[in-house]
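Aim 2 progress update. The chain analyzed this quarter is reproduced below.
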Amino acid sequence: MRSKDMTGLEFLTSVMQGESRPQNMADTIPMRLVAAEEGFVRFMVRAEEQHTNIMGGVHGGFSATVMDTVTGCAVCTLMETGVSYTTIDLNVKMIRPIPIGKELIAEGKIVNRSRRLGIADGKIIDENGKLYATGSTTCMILS
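Predicted structure tokens:
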């Protein structure tokens, strides 16, 4: 949980610099924040064997969790001190199977921020720009 004394962007910057601990979900799904600026975040993500479904492929929940993280963090970059948000809608489209053991890039970008809602888009790509998943979220701003 981020400090009530920091803006969202200040908190995410402190996570990148190792001054704050990322949330526990980063232990479940390996995600490393590598860029954060106003309205944009980039994470490096990697699916491992524990993320597979009964068919042996990476579970759809991996992409959904990553998408919720990157889109929510994009919204977080615009949060003022003492203001938070919660996801109220998440849409994810899986384009192709997520490979096991390959580091991928996950990005989130703000589409719109109003007084009560934040809307963001996200994507999971490889180093060549090949698209694995895309999504969008609507977050409610909690003052």
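The mean pLDDT is 91. Strands lie at 31-37, 40-46, 84-94, 103-113, 117-125, 131-142. These observations will guide the mutagenesis experiments scheduled for the next reporting period.
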